[in-house]
Design brief:
This protein has one domain (7-101): RelE-like (YaeB-like fold, 2-Layer Sandwich), CATH 3.30.2310.20. The chain is built from four helices and four strands; from the N terminus they run βαααβββα. The protein has helices spanning 12-26, 30-47, 60-64, 98-101, and strands at residues 7-10, 68-72, 75-82, 85-93. Helix 1 runs antiparallel to helix 2. The longest helix is centred in the middle third of the chain and has 18 residues, at 30-47.
Length: 102
């Protein structure tokens, strides 16, 4: 049994983002795709201990909704807290216009 103070879930869009990231990287390197997915999952797992360690986003509308951001290898992980659950909303490449995608 995991004794972390918070758990996490992926939104359907975040699950789709993870699948898309893997599929894209897997075209050139299966090892690199697996490694990045592992790093993203590890970073999210670390959030379960310290979910408030990451900053709120700068966008006023998203900030008011409680969106926080975690960066991993050029990707931005957007999440909100709902009780003791970290809801991963999106995982987007850093160059994407996240305001219109969230």
């Amino acid at each position: 049994m995991d004794s972390r103070p918070y758990n996490y879930v992926f939104s359907p869009l975040a699950e789709e983002d993870m699948a898309d990231i893997f599929a894209y990287l897997d075209l050139s390197s299966h090892h690199a795709a697996n490694r990045l997915i592992d790093e993203i999952q590890s970073a999210i797992l670390n959030l379960c201990d310290f979910p408030f360690s990451r900053p709120l986003v700068l966008d006023d509308v998203l900030r008011k909704k409680g969106y926080r951001i975690l960066g991993v290898k050029g990707f931005s992980i957007f999440y909100v807290l709902e009780g003791q659950t970290i809801v991963i909303r999106r995982i987007l490449h850093g160059r994407r216009n996240f305001e219109r995608l969230l």
